[in-house]
Amino acid sequence: MFGLSKLAQPLARQSLQVISKRTNIAVNGPPEVRMPKWKQLLIGGSVCGSTLIIPIWVLYDLKNLPR
Q: Which residues cross the membrane (predicted)?
């Protein structure tokens, strides 16, 4: 029984390594490539602006709706 567990542990570790290579499991930690702060602000601002532009336009255009 103990001989089997000594054999099974390396096989289990090896299978986990193969699975993680295939599935690209995300690991918490520092990013591999850091994004500059100005790019983060540009992307965040464009996402925020694109989600807010339609409600702002609707609120601005309410006075032109037919009654």
A: 41-60
Prediction pTM value:
0.47
Residue with tokens 């601005």, as numbered in its chain: 60
Strand, helix or coil at 25? coil
Q: How far apart are the first and last CA of the chain?
A: 83
Q: Number of C-alpha atoms within 13 angstroms, CB side, residue 48?
A: 6
Which residue, chain included where needed, has tokens 């994004």? Answer: 35
State how far the Cα of 19 lies from the Cα of 15, in Å rounded to an integer: 6
Q: Model confidence over 26-60: pLDDT tens digits?
A: 678 887 889 999 999 999 999 999 999 999 999 99
d(CA 65, CA 42): 34
